[in-house]
Amino acid sequence: MYKSTKRLLLNLSLTVGASSLVIGLPIAITANADKIEDMIHPVDNTPYLKYEDDFLKSDRGDILRLPIDENPIPVVLGEMDEQTKEYIVDGINALDEISENINYTIYDYNDFDKPSDLKYISFNMIDEIYSENSDPAGVTYISWDENTAEIKYPIGIELENYWAEGYWDEEYTQSVLTTIVKHELMHTLGFRDLYKDEDRSRSIMYYQLGPLTQRTFTEEDIEKIQYCYDGKEVATTSHPDQIILANYTDFLDKNKKITTKHDDEYSL
Questions:
Q1: Residue 42's domain is classified under what CATH number?
Q2: pLDDT tens over the chain, length 268 residues
Q3: Residue 78 included in any domain
Q4: What is residue 264's DSSP assignment?
Q5: Would you tell me the crossing angle of helices 82-98 and 170-188 to the nearest 10 degrees?
Q6: Where on the phi/psi map is residue 100: left (φ > 0), alpha (ψ -120 to 50), or beta?
Q7: Domain range spanning residue 98?
Q8: Domain count of the chain?
Q9: Which of 68, 83, 84, 90 could form a cystine bridge with 164, CB 3.0-4.6 A?
Q10: Is residue 74 part of a domain?
């Protein structure tokens, strides 16, 4: 999540037999989980231990991870204009190109028949995301199996319409929306928000969206994804060129529509 007067929130909905988590920017993570005394299947955290401090964890302390297989993950885009879809797809494709094992197939909601196992990620635009302790730009809803620490489908991501309503010109709108999408997709992989000042330059998972925030996956992000999900010790895949939000502060100064509603940093 990112921080500003607009905050990015990750909500994990509670389901029976599963744990749930809420991650918000800049608010703290809270968890509400059913207590299970005996673990039926021991969880192997070994593939993730190198970056364990960057992961969300279950009440039992297991690293949360997204189960993947040879089939692409369906991503369903809700009702939104074509340009907004294009910007969201840019963010999805950026992650798809990083990992050999993580792949997505994108559907319009009108063309998607939900599979019986409900394995999909959905993106929806809403007018305003409300949170008592934050003003989020986006929110991701996940739950997990306490016995396996696997994140459960379906996963829902909501983005606030404000970011696609024309307060930004095309280049800036694309940069902001794709940044939020990349950040939220990292949450679906189990990665948490980062809060230290040095995290601002090293990862897209820094919780604030502001002038110095990363707009694309850093080399460290790429290595984490590939190490944890592709089994690669060293990152070898180059990330695609992304629009960098340059002169962000100058742009805000010139656009009163934005500055009258928001400060110069935004939460994810």
A1: 3.40.390.10
A2: 443 333 333 433 222 233 345 443 332 233 344 444 444 558 999 999 999 999 999 988 999 999 999 999 999 999 999 989 998 999 999 999 999 999 999 999 888 887 666 899 999 999 888 776 677 788 999 999 999 999 999 999 999 888 777 555 666 667 788 889 999 999 999 999 999 988 888 899 988 776 667 788 999 999 999 999 999 875 444 434 433 333 344 444 544 334 333 444 545 5
A3: yes
A4: S
A5: 50
A6: alpha
A7: 9-267
A8: 1
A9: 84
A10: yes
